[in-house]
């Protein structure tokens, strides 16, 4: 491939090791620190993210900057949220070294993405991230709930998590993450990613998930109320909904009444229902539950 003169130099394996050594970074499993060392993977993520020059990208966990450097030329701004103080402090310098003309487009926030309740400045329109494995689902759901400006996104997660996020009703892996994701967005798989593109190499495969926000189901109750029904249904996913929702409704009889009122077969299981059905069920929760 011909390298454009204006192209930002991306980070390869030697750059990543050097940067990590200079900063004294020893990647931790707890923070899901597996850094991408392959420029082609980074380019693929950016391509799959379908970004435009007006997009303001929220990147969670920029790490040493592999993805950040590829995002900056494509979009209006990048807001990067990094929990690791050393990595957060080093990122502006890495960007200034490699692409000084784009350094002004980057904001770095040293914070836990699960705790943020907003970001300053132009509001992010797209989430693009190589997410830490152990908090990938809560991070995506929290950000979709907290930042209504997010219209679309592309995240790299563990392969099984990718499957779960996009699963449709009726499949074995359909569960809480699938229903909650469907509340906010239409999500689809955007390709597999092998282990060798990371340092250190993880012991799981990864996958890309792209999503586009959609209108949530029309419901007379809050999102929290719908999610409470979802949590209850899947807490005992082998049971019929009549049994699984007994505690939630107050009794098995009350659960059956709510299910019938919602037009749902009480002997069905949660894994058969789409997000709209859960919204209808939540609307019929008895008012006097314990
Ligand atoms: N984007 C970089 C890349 O592709 O090479 C790093 C990705 S690495 C899988 C995940 C990054 O997320 C790490 O830099 C880690 O420190 C950061 N991280 C972990 N938990 C986080 C959280 N709760 N909030 C923000 N960043 C987090």
Main features:
17% strand, 2 domains, 12 helices, single chain, elongated, disordered N terminus, Rossmann fold, seven-stranded mixed sheet, binds S-adenosylmethionine, 290 residues, two-stranded antiparallel sheet, alpha/beta, Helicase, Ruva Protein, domain 3
Characterization of the model:
A seven-stranded mixed beta sheet has the order 4-3-2-5-6-9-7. The relative contact order is 0.11. With 290 residues, the protein is of the alpha/beta class. It has two domains: 201 residues, Vaccinia Virus protein VP39 (Rossmann fold, 3-Layer(aba) Sandwich), CATH 3.40.50; 61 residues, rRNA adenine dimethylase, C-terminal domain (Helicase, Ruva Protein, domain 3, Orthogonal Bundle). Helix content is 38%, strand content 17%. The N terminus is likely disordered. It is built from twelve helices and nine strands. It binds S-adenosylmethionine (SAM). The site of S-adenosylmethionine has 23 residues, from strand 1, helix 3 and strand 3.
Question: What structural class do you assign from the helix and strand content?
Answer: alpha/beta
What is the count of β-strands? 9
Could you say what the CATH architecture of the largest domain is? Answer: 3-Layer(aba) Sandwich
Which CATH class of the largest domain applies here?
Answer: Alpha Beta
Q: What characteristic shape results from the CA principal axes?
A: elongated
Distance between the termini: 64 Å
Mean residue pLDDT = 95
Question: What's the number of domains?
Answer: 2
């Amino acid at each position: 491939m011909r390298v454009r003169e204006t192209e930002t130099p991306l980070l390869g394996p030697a750059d990543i090791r050097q940067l990590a050594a200079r900063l004294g970074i020893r990647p931790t499993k707890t923070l899901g620190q597996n850094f991408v060392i392959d420029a082609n993977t980074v380019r693929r993520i950016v391509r799959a993210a379908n970004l435009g020059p007006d997009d303001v990208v929220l990147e969670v966990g920029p790490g040493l900057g592999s993805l950040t450097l590829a995002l900056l030329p494509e979009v209006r701004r990048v807001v990067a949220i990094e929990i690791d103080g050393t990595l957060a402090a080093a990122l502006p310098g890495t960007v200034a070294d490699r692409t000084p003309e784009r350094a002004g487009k980057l904001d770095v926030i040293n914070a836990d993405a699960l705790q943020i309740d907003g970001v300053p400045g132009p509001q992010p329109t797209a989430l693009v991230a190589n997410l830490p494995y152990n908090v990938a689902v809560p991070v995506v759901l929290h950000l979709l709930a907290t930042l209504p400006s997010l219209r679309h996104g592309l995240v790299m997660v563990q392969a099984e998590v990718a499957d779960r996020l996009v699963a449709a009703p009726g499949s074995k892996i359909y569960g809480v993450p699938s229903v909650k994701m469907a509340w906010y967005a239409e999500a689809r798989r955007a390709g597999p990613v092998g282990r060798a593109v990371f340092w250190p190499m993880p012991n799981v495969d990864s996958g890309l998930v792209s999503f586009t926000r959609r209108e949530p189901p029309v419901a007379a109750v809050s999102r929290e109320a719908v999610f409470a029904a979802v949590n209850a249904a899947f807490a005992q996913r082998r049971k019929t909904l009549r049994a699984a929702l007994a505690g939630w409704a107050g009794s098995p009889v009350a659960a059956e009444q709510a299910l019938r009122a919602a037009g749902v077969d009480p002997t069905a299981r949660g894994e058969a229902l789409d997000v709209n059905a859960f919204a209808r069920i939540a609307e019929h929760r008895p008012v006097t539950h314990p």
